[in-house]
UniProtKB/TrEMBL annotation, chains A, B, C:
Domain Glycoside hydrolase family 42 N-terminal: 15-393
Alphabetical list of CDD domains matching this protein: A4_beta-galactosidase_middle_domain
Catalytic activity of the protein: Hydrolysis of terminal non-reducing beta-D-galactose residues in beta-D-galactosides
Positions of the Beta-galactosidase trimerisation domain: 403-605
Family: Belongs to the glycosyl hydrolase 42 family.
Entries under InterPro entries matching the protein: Beta_galactosidase_C, Beta_galactosidase_Trimer, Class_I_gatase-like, GH, Glyco_hydro_42, Glyco_hydro_42_N, Glyco_hydro_b
Signal peptide annotation: none
Source organism per UniProt: Halobacillus salinarum
Name of the protein: Beta-galactosidase
Length: 677, 677, 677
């Protein structure tokens, strides 16, 4: 069942913390929200001490008044369960509820997310507060839905409390049944790690070389994900039971968490917190860094979870904590641009974070749309303008993003590669290269999530699948890919593909393992790029030469394999580097290396995808997105540059915001957006 | 009451550790000190185990002989209380006396300053040893004064033992009386940090994102300072009671310690340890780094505590520990230069660290004036030369440093900014820029310490006050500044001024808060400099253009505000950046940015301060200092360069060292100093 | 007694882990080993859980079958004692057996070497397993020798468990007898560290400035070495008793371990694990980095322990862990080159690590000669070629490396300098410079290990000794050097020589302490190089000028001292920097600085050593090694470059591999080796 947001039109919301502000300010705040065209208000998610000031003593007065007042202005409330920040009385009384470092040092009160998911006390007390809140608000007419906790696995995605070690032991028993199975899966015979009693089993702990058993570490990440989901399920089950008429979701996208499973199993739709301004401060030494435009990739992943989704926190100002995250202010137009970036990728509900900048605590520099002083400012005006525009674009809600190509993602490989210096860095580079090449060539792309339920039909939604460095590929997955290509699909792989099984152990097979038949190669030899030597190259179709950076696999070919590129500038000069094999009605590609922007661009041409050159001439700085509903393509053109960009239309479109026709040359102002049909 | 050293003439001293050396060397050492013109010998400060080899068993024999022998040569002894290094028997028996990391790991025996100030056992045992020493030496004719402990808060200025957590809880109770007050001051409603019982209150502890509540953290620093002062008071009270005829001080200037309050409440005068050679190894990528000349700023701060002061440790050789601090040797002349640097800024007593380089332990590379081998060397000869010169300059003792401009310092802002990446780095840059600009323009400057007792009269000692990035400005302080300017003062502020209250929480006011009336601006919008973009500029008086680095505030002007500079190269091009407002008989200046050397230099011209161009033409490499006493200006010119510097005198002076007149051109040799009247 | 390997001919071996592989693969594996010409198979060293699956329950079945099967193919087994990786049941039941960080955090199960050497339980259980294995295999015809543990002190060379603290206390009692002696040796009077009871004595612990007492720290390293040797002795004694007919050794060369004493006291010969591929990934910003050729120095040190030695792990493929150590593949020829590098330096037995790349655990990227897939590959073929060549070179076994010059090493200085930023970095730079200069000038060099047993005769084996920055030089050592030079030796020292005694405390003497007579200088003054200033120079013999980087000592000369170089570009311009003194029949040299490649090259010319220019003209990229036996010089020329290198022979040699004569010009292919007689 596809979990998607079902809004009738594009709507706006706001994150609001009534408990932070004098009660006599609420009315004015709500009135101004209403005037701005805000529909939703999220609240409650950090207020456990308000709801339960002492253990077992509950108080809903403050939020009852806050919800009622919101209702007076026609605002709909999304209520957060407050478990991201346990009360001080709780962690003091139940220290087993704290998360702990791998070295055994507990995290304490003072920030957030210092609890662990497996403490019995914490689970019990969480159940109680969620049940009390659900009982209290389940039929409140102004409360429309629930956010479980806040940003699960944010701040940290590793957990080493005693409760976690114990739960992991049980998890392992359930998964492996016998120690023989566990020892085999973890390759325990290596370095004499064989377990002879279940009480010897722990999460990874401090080792002398700071390098745990990698198969153990992979399972640990699966466990962290299952723990988080189990904890969310505890809350979701209560909400479903006690508040069956209100929807349930959670927000954020963080590490060691299978958000697809979480959403499929527990939620009505998925909500993301989008902060593209991070893109302006993150070190990025790659060619042509995408900066805030990189968030379009994140939004593509979100879309793979929930085709239509909500943004629960849309960045609306300069961001930062007192001690770190030093972001500049959005420039005039950027707040609007980022809002449309979310919409262009499938968001139908956008909630700005936050109404007014906090005057207390660690986040006094995470600015809301209002400043501390509450005077009108440029950001509020920009939200107002967006709000008015959305009235004209409401019908876009429910439409679907259009893409012919997808980049494949998979949690097993993501978690295995995180730890593996022989895959992880290559995957990061290739993803960057492919996403950039597709963006700059105006070829819309989806993220495609591969899991145990993936069917051939799912794959067949796309003309081309890119799956660069999936170390773990099972026999079943390889057969699925074979079928996909046989039936006309195109699929491309890079080096380090297919050499591991699901435990993360290499097969006793020549690379690329079970893919060998599909791609028609065996890897004859391979090498990492030596750090103080010249980088080899690839000669593509005897024409262009591009770098073969980071890793090289020399390919031995089976029959009927076409060589598209050969190595240069290496002792394996002239040997095959990049090949194509026609396979059934489709074709496979294998590159014995890490993709870079040049090579990915050359390959995109190969695939003959729609780059919409019949409709527009677009400069690189402009992103193209298309959402489709009921026979209409909604075209978004977004200018991420602070320089005006000239666009050429090769047919006449209607500018949906102005209602006017556009044709021929059109100039997008800095950070400007145009939505066409 | 002003706490200043009252020496009748400029005097020299030496740090000596008799317990380190064979007793038969003492006589020769003292004789040579006497020959060098040394007056004072400091000893005893790391010798607790000598004085109390077992708990409750005391022995003064060794130091009695060491003091008596010093007395034979007419040397006066300054006795250190030995609490900076607890005996091994003490920390073994009373582990609660140890300081502990925030993570809970105790520091142990092996170096120094591993104790905490709040352990009851440590306070009790400290009281006993200090009392015993005071009883023993209070009427010794050769012991003239006491140094409490050694370098309080050196090595570390944070303390997390159980005793510290407990003492902090009591400190907070005393400050806030109720948890309601505490919760309000710490903004505890944010992230659900509300305290409901006093036993939940601790110093900051490990948090997941390694970011404690900033208001809590600010109070923690106030507590650390109060703890250190309380511990020093424990000793000072005993010394005052048992040794009333001897003076009392302590040495050093380290973090999280209100040295002004410490001195005002407890000491006779303040003593500083001056190591300018650090300036030759510290990374400094600023424009025209000051290197060792930076110590002139440190000495200015010392002067703000004690207008005439002592140097208890004046660097006299290459410095360094075995494991770190890798300093080169002073070049010929630098030891003398640094001595005069101290004197030029108000030091009337200079004690060299140390007589002879240690042959044991961590500091075998902190060289004294003598080498291990005790043979005559260049450094001893340089001290001898200085000593002879000082005979001719003795009358300078007691004279006062002259400055028309002061740079304002304040502990609340210093401690708040330490933690705040949105203020602290700007304050550091602006301080550097202003100090350099004043040095290079030969405008002497004071540090002005702003605290609760500061009066309008205090402010009126200066024509100009520079207070660049004081985030915390109270209503009362703003009113004081208003009065100062109304009565003719000039005062200049930079961005990030006045937006926080004393708890470190932003006001719900437009920036710059209570300063708005004085400076006549509201901040319309602001931004940090984006790291991968071009730096904006400021056009000053439509003439020069300088960089507007790091942070930009766009200013909205009230009436009667003169625009001195506007922004360039930004989306807010042309908007006001730097303004002046005539206010009563004085004027205020506000710059919506961080000061750099270029801008500070332009502004100094604005202020029309005495730069002594009627008296000299001085090259940038030469520092000018003037001390005044009884109608005479004592002029110090110090050449920090290893290149000769030519000075032009526009009237005739007397070189006080040679006794000869100087006029017209004069060449200062590398590292040379001239003292004129 | 010289401990050397006594092989009759050059032999090959392989590291094999039968427990990792299906038993039905063994036969094929052994057959292929046999076909490759392999003689030895090492096994067992990480298999404790196989031998003792439960405490006190032993099982030899698996390895009995593995040994028997090896025997069927004529392979000889080297058995490893399995103590490098304790079983999980052991560390769970006896947590006192774990090693612990200095901060008190125990290392846990999951990697290797997480035990400590002093745990009574671990020593007891180690004794039992070693005894059981020795009893079982002592008369097995196919088991020829034992490897104790695996790579002692690899992963970490520091140990802070409670058992280590206790053992250190006993070690100190035994060494010092009284606390007075201990306090004197550790300079405890400094910073009041005096011990008054033995229970106050610990290994170094966490100090506030993270800087322990350096004399204490030096003793700690001596203790770590003694602990490791004591643990190895525990095993060696059992093996000698229960398996007297089999030889005993151990492998590796790691920190804080006196491998010379270990070998002399316990072993039959020394075995090294050689991984030159590290040289291709280690950051090396020195002039002309040696990369993999640097391993020739390591092999020289190994040779100083055991003139003929074994390589128990010779790198045979790309190397790396999952999380770190990211090595490229050896290029065609490099595996062969590195094998000959070992042989050229004295190895007579070469065991490749490992037969087949592990498919499990942390080392899945430490490739063996076979890949996971077990198909023939380039590396297997290269081993086969080497094997065939060695048949023609067998007689080289037992021959001796020839060198006229030696670089002196000494554990006291190595361990003291490790911690000392005023010596350690200089020693590292000078060693690099000298080794490079000797390599590039084709002057073979030995490492000469100086210890308490070193005799004048030992020294006299060399024409020249280079001992650049030995801070610790005792009176006895100085007298030994005097005798050596008097009898015709040449000896050269650099700055920072001779100023410390055996405790690491500076003498109360002018530098260079007891060396002053031999070298005829006192150091007048010295300085570290100041980081932001120009580097001084040395003018050598009034001709070339080279840099005088890092540290400068200005020399005062005694009589009859010849100045070879004077300083430039410093305030001590023109003063002596480098001197020579004829002393008896020999001569001494002293340089008041750190050697660089230019200076070392100039000095080598001074020494008039045999650089074999009468025999060859060799390019820099080619290493020359000569082994001698029974009147024959075996000459190795090794090309470390991937570019062909032209060699000129000035007499006719025989290429021992082809059996053909070579003369005049000869081109060494990339990574090629030629062995001549």
């Amino acid at each position: 069942m596809v979990k998607k947001l079902n809004e009738e039109k594009l709507t706006l919301g706001i994150c609001y913390y009534p408990e932070h502000w004098p009660e006599d300010m609420w009315e004015d705040d709500y009135r101004r929200m209403k005037e701005l065209g805000i529909t939703y208000v999220r609240m409650g998610e950090f207020a456990w001490s308000i709801f339960e000031p002492e253990e077992g003593k509950f108080s809903f007065d403050l939020f009852d008044r806050a919800v009622a007042k919101a209702g007076e202005f026609g605002l709909k409330v999304i209520m957060g369960t407050p478990t991201a920040t346990p009360p001080t009385w709780l962690t003091k009384k139940y220290p087993d509820s704290l998360n702990v470092t791998q070295d055994g040092i507990p995290y304490q009160h003072g920030a957030r997310r210092h609890y662990n998911y497996n403490s019995e006390n914490y689970r019990r007390l969480s159940s109680i507060i969620v049940k009390k809140m659900a009982e209290h608000y389940h039929d409140h007419p102004d409360v429309v839905g629930w956010q479980i906790d806040n940003e699960l696995n944010c701040e940290t995605d590793v957990f080493y409390s005693e409760a976690d070690h114990d739960a992991f032991r049980e998890w392992a028993k359930k998964k492996y049944h016998t120690l023989e199975n566990l020892n085999a899966a973890w390759g325990a015979v290596f370095w004499n790690q064989t377990y002879t009693s279940w009480d010897q089993v722990y999460l990874t702990r401090k080792t002398v070389p700071n390098s745990p058993n990698p198969h153990h570490a992979l399972d640990e990440k699966r466990f962290f994900s299952d723990s988080a989901i189990s904890y969310a399920k505890l809350q979701a089950d209560i909400l479903r039971e006690y508040a069956p008429k209100q929807w349930v979701t959670t927000n954020g996208m963080f590490g060691h968490l299978d958000n697809h499973k979480l959403t499929d199993d527990l939620l009505d739709f998925y909500a993301y917190d989008s902060y593209p301004n991070f893109g302006r401060i993150i070190e990025d030494h790659s060619v042509k860094p995408l900066r805030d435009r990189k968030w379009s990739w994140n939004l593509s992943v979100v879309r793979s979870i929930s085709p239509n989704f909500a943004i629960f926190e849309q960045q609306s100002g300069p961001g930062g904590w007192v001690t770190r995250i030093e972001q500049p202010s959005p420039k005039p137009g950027q707040l609007r641009l980022w809002t449309y970036q979310s919409i262009a990728h499938g968001a139908d509900m956008i909630m700005y974070f936050r109404w007014r900048t906090a005057t207390k605590g660690t986040e006094i520099y995470w600015h809301g749309i209002n400043d501390y002083h509450n005077q009108p400012n440029r950001r509020v005006k920009e939200v107002e303008a967006v709000s008015q525009e959305l009235h004209k674009l409401g019908q876009i809600a429910g439409s679907s993003y259009q893409a012919e190509i997808a980049y494949v993602t998979n949690y097993d490989n993501e978690w295995d590669a995180e730890f593996d210096k022989w895959v992880g860095p290559y995957e990061a580079k290739s993803k960057d290269a492919w996403f950039k090449a597709l963006q700059y060539n105006h070829v819309p792309v989806d993220a495609f999530h591969l899991n145990a339920e993936t069917s051939l039909e799912d794959l067949k939604s796309y003309k081309v699948l890119v799956y660069p460095h999936a170390a773990i590929i099972t026999k079943e997955q390889a057969e699925l890919f074979n079928s996909y290509v046989k039936q006309g699909g195109k699929m491309i792989f890079g080096c380090r593909s297919g050499y591991k099984d699901e435990t993360g152990q290499p097969y006793m097979k020549a690379f690329p393992g079970y893919l060998a038949d599909l791609v028609g190669v065996n890897v004859e030899e391979f090498t990492r790029e030596a750090p103080f030597e010249e980088t080899p190259g690839v000669k593509f179709k005897n024409l262009q030469e591009v770098e073969a950076n980071d890793f090289n696999e020399v390919l031995q070919l089976k029959e009927d394999v076409e060589v598209l590129g050969t190595f240069t500038n290496a002792h394996f000069e002239g040997k095959p580097a990049l090949v194509k094999r026609n396979y059934g009605q489709g074709s496979s590609y294998y590159f014995g290396g890490v993709f870079n922007l040049d090579l990915a661009s050359l390959l995109i041409d190969e695939f003959e995808l729609n780059d919409y050159q019949d409709l527009f001439d677009l400069p690189e700085q402009v992103e193209l997105s298309i959402r489709h509903k009921e026979g209409t393509d909604y075209v978004f053109l977004l200018n991420y540059s602070e320089v005006p960009q000239e666009v050429t239309f090769k047919k006449e479109f209607t500018d949906l915001i102005t209602g006017r026709p556009v044709t021929n040359k059109h100039t997008l102002k800095p950070f400007d957006v145009i939505v066409l049909a």
